Amino acid sequence: MQVIIERFNPENDSQPYAQSYHIDDTEIADDTMLLELLQRLREQDPSLGFRSSCQEGVCGSDGMNVNGSNCLSCITLAKPLGEKIHIRALPGFPIIKDLIVDMSIFYQQYRDVKPFLQGDAALQTNLEQEFLQSPQERAKLDGSVECILCACCSSSCPSFWWNPDLFPGPAALLAANRFVVDSRDITTIDRLEQQDSAVKAFRCRNIQNCTSACPKGLNPSRAIQALKHAIVNKPT
């Protein structure tokens, strides 16, 4: 098996370059994940840079572009990728080194949507009072609370590539919608007005790259369309 990795170290390289590695196919089991191959390659070449942590598809740290699609290497089987695997860093982010990218703008956009519950102040100061929801109200949050902030969705979005400083990106808009539909949050109108802009929610063109790229099977595109609908129909 040939693994071609696009490498780049800004301290030494003027531009990215492809480096080819070879791994004996007989050493790859059917359940071998791509991350394991990368770990073997780093044993051969300690200079190879990539992130990983939980190795269970929970932390979201090992997002990368593999054969043209964004994925998490720790939950991506190696064998189905073929005899030649092309790996590069997540598109749309500055490269720190090799497969490691600077996600500062991604996290800033996420922070800007205020991804935390803003409930009734009286309830917040009363530690004896719970923020209750019915099972039906809680069910509305399914499909958004599972996001692990791996950035695979935002990194697959052309609108985010072009204007990452203005367009929040699918992950942030998914979070924005999650709190808009939360029955316990009292800032719904403020949240909708914040995203009511041609460069925010309405910058999404619904091409659904984000949904295709999500390793957790979420549907950011559908959430963004729901957010747009809520904005258009918000009380005046």
Write the layout of secondary structure elements.
Layout (H helix, E strand, L loop, with lengths): L1 E6 L9 E6 L11 H11 L18 E4 L2 E4 L11 E5 L6 E3 L2 E2 L2 H9 L8 H5 L9 H5 L18 H5 L7 H11 L7 H8 L13 H5 L6 H13 L4
Parallel strand pairs: 1-5
Antiparallel strand pairs: 1-2, 3-4, 3-5, 6-7
Helix pairs in contact: 2-6, 6-7, 6-9
Write a brief structural summary.
With 236 residues, the protein is α+β, with helices and mostly antiparallel strands. Helix content is 31%, strand content 13%. The protein has helices at residues 34-44, 104-112, 121-125, 135-139, 158-162, 170-180, 188-195, 209-213, 220-232; strands spanning 2-7, 17-22, 63-66, 69-72, 84-88, 95-97, 100-101.
Task: Classify the beta-strand content into a percent band.
Answer: 5-15%
Instruction: Please name the CATH topology of the largest domain.
Output: Fumarate Reductase Iron-sulfur Protein, Chain B, domain 2
CATH superfamily of the largest domain: Alpha-helical ferredoxin
Roughly how many Å is the radius of gyration? 20 Å
Give the fraction of residues assigned to helices: 25-40%
CATH architecture term of the largest domain: Orthogonal Bundle
How many strands, which pairing sense, and closed or not: the largest β-sheet? 5 strands, mixed
Strand order of the largest sheet: 2-1-5-3-4
**Topology pattern, helix = H, strand = E:** EEHEEEEEHHHHHHHH
Mean pLDDT: 95
How many separate domains make up the residues?
2
Structural class: alpha+beta
Distance between the termini: 60 Å
Pfam families: Fer2_3, Fer4_17
GO molecular function: 2 iron, 2 sulfur cluster binding; 3 iron, 4 sulfur cluster binding; 4 iron, 4 sulfur cluster binding; electron transfer activity; metal ion binding; succinate dehydrogenase (quinone) activity
Domain 4Fe-4S ferredoxin-type: 137-167
InterPro entries: 2Fe-2S_ferredoxin-like_sf, 4Fe4S_Fe-S-bd, 4Fe4S_Fe_S_CS, Beta-grasp_dom_sf, Helical_ferredxn, SDH/FRD_Iron-Sulfur, Succ_DH/fum_Rdtase_Fe-S, Succ_DH/fum_Rdtase_N
